[in-house]
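ARCHIVE CARD
CATEGORY: sequence design from structure
SOURCE FIELD: tokenized fold
FIELD CONTENT:
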């Protein structure tokens, strides 16, 4: 039987659950930058919206569904952080669509962008002559980063969460032996001790895990 008190109670529980989940998993889903953040928002909204007006679903069942979804989110976030290939599969990776003034059609198709989409993104970024573009990159959230000729290099992390990104190393035209030597110079023996590291203008900038510093 439908009652407004039941709807109100479920709304309160849903509100509290969303607040707790955001604080536990991080603020990324407030301004989604990845497929994972978007998915979390969509499904959670669907769960709460689909349950609050359904009197056949009890409060206990509602709580169990919310807890199962929270568990799935937390486990997935943990795995994507610690398993590099899984993180790339879930969130994708930046794709270069223009390099040194040349359109990379294969990469545009890989990013599921039609010629019209690419033209729109370039115009939105203020690009009207791709010959002036050193590199244009479609980010994980679909936005376009443009680097014009004569500007510095785009910074990308070569190490994230204690794992090397081989694609970035390849883009830098470096190898893991070089990376290990650079870390040694900064008295870092293991890549797993590195929370985040980027290479730009000939310098490797490293941030270590606080607990391991």
């Amino acid at each position: 039987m439908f009652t407004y008190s039941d709807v109100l109670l479920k709304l309160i529980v849903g509100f509290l659950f969303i607040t707790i989940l955001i604080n536990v998993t991080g603020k990324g889903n407030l301004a989604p930058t990845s497929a994972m953040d978007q998915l979390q928002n969509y499904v959670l909204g669907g769960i709460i919206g689909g349950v609050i007006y359904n009197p056949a679903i009890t409060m206990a069942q509602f709580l169990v569904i919310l807890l199962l979804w929270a568990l799935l989110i937390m486990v997935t976030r943990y795995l994507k952080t610690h398993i590099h290939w899984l993180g790339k599969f879930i969130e994708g990776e930046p794709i270069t669509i223009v390099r040194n003034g040349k359109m990379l059609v294969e990469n545009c198709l890989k990013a599921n962008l039609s010629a019209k989409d690419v033209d729109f993104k370039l115009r939105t970024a203020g690009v009207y002559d791709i010959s002036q573009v050193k590199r244009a990159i479609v980010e994980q959230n679909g936005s376009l980063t443009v680097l014009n000729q004569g500007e510095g290099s785009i910074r990308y992390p070569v190490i994230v969460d204690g794992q090397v990104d081989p694609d970035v190393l390849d883009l830098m035209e470096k190898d893991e032996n070089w990376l290990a030597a650079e870390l040694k110079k900064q008295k870092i023996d293991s890549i797993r001790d590195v929370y985040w590291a980027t290479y730009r203008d000939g310098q490797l900038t490293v941030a270590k895990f606080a607990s391991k510093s």
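CARD ANNOTATION: The chain has a mean pLDDT of 83. Residues 157-208 form a domain with the CRO Repressor fold (CATH 3.30.240.20).
SHELF: design records, drawer C
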